[in-house]
Each structure stands twice: as C-alpha cells, then as structure tokens.
Amino acid sequence: MKKDDCFYLGKIVKKYSFKGEVLAKLDTDQPELYDHLDAIFLNLRNNLVPFFIEHSQLHKSELLRIKFEDVDTEADADAIMKSDLYLPLELLPKLEGNKFYFHEVIGFTINDKNYGKVGIIKGINDSTAQALFEIDSNGTEILIPMNDEFIVKVDRDNKTILVETPEGLIDLYL
User: Which of 15, 62, 109, 165 is most buried as measured by Cβ atoms within 10 A of its Cβ?
Assistant: First the structure.
C-alpha cells in the first residue's frame, strides 16, 4: 500500500497500559467512525506496515485506545510510539453536497458566477489560517479562499466547483 492511496488518520501519542495498549490522537471531526477497525497502517521508517487490531475504543472523546495483535509489552508499544496512522482512501466516508475532501477536488475546474471559467485546481494550501484553492489559469496561479460563503456548488459528476467570489478578487491575479 502506497501513501498516495491512503489518508492520514492520526498519530500514536502515548502508552496506555503495560500490556502494549496505546492511545492515538485522531485527526477527524468524527472519531466514532473509526472505533471498530480491523486493521490500520502504521508509518514505520517511511514504510506503511499493516497492523491488526485486537480491540479499540474511544477514550476521552478524541483519543482512540488501541490494542494491536503482537504488541504485548511496553517495549513493543515503545517501538511504535509517535507513528502516524493511515487508512486506504476507499474507507473515507462519502461526502455529499458542497462538502469535499481536499484530495478529491484536485483537477476540478473552478467557475466563478460572475467571472466565468477561472482554471483548474492544482492543489490546496491549508498551511494558512484559511485554506486556499490553488488554481492554474493558463500558467497564472490564482488563490481563492475555501470559504463556505464563496462555494455555490460542487458538481462531482462534471468535476467542477462553482464559486461566487467578491468583485475584483480574481482580477488581482490577472
């Protein structure tokens, strides 16, 4: 399994018991969706390694307490401490309407209600306070904030997103 075929679920943050149990901090708004997994991939030395889960349960709402098969001691738990957790992309819950995962809209065309065709989404910049669509418009990069008020419609069938940006925003780049 390659990292490109997976999504980041969270990170093992601490040991829970002397029997090898660990606590993982999940990077999700819905941790309950991942309460009963059979297996998960751990990033060990830049390789995704499958680990089978004996049992897991939510712990203090945002942490997942996990007991892996063959992780039976504190030393075993130490060996996987701080590892990132990954799951295959097909396990992501399907989103509908104007909600989307960042990876799924790469390559979509952005159209503005007032401006017309803006360009193709080549990436999402989420390192700023507000995530931004990175759009290629004939070689010029245009950044549009991913603001719910700007996004009018996400059309998965036609791979387009209709936005309505403030007047002049797109013109700033051209």
Answer: 165
CATH number for the domain that contains residue 135: 2.30.30.240
| Burial class of residue 96 (count of CB atoms within 10 Å of its CB; 0-12, 13-18, 19+) | exposed
97 within a domain of the structure (yes/no) = no
Structure pTM? 0.69
pLDDT at 144 over 90: yes
Task: Quote the number of domains for the chain.
Answer: 2
First and final C-alpha spacing in the chain: 41
7-32 residue pLDDT tens:
999 999 999 989 999 999 998 878 88
Q: Are residues 14 and 34 in the same domain?
A: yes
Q: How many residues does the chain have?
A: 174
How big is the chain by its Cα radius of gyration, in Å?
20
44-49 contact pairs (CB < 8 A, 24+): 44/80, 44/83, 48/1, 48/2, 48/3, 48/6, 48/86
- Averaged pLDDT for residues 129-142: 94
> 46: domain range?
3-91
pLDDT in tens, 28-73: 878 888 888 899 999 999 999 999 999 999 987 779 999 999 999 9
Decide which of 64, 91, 118 is a domain's last residue. 91
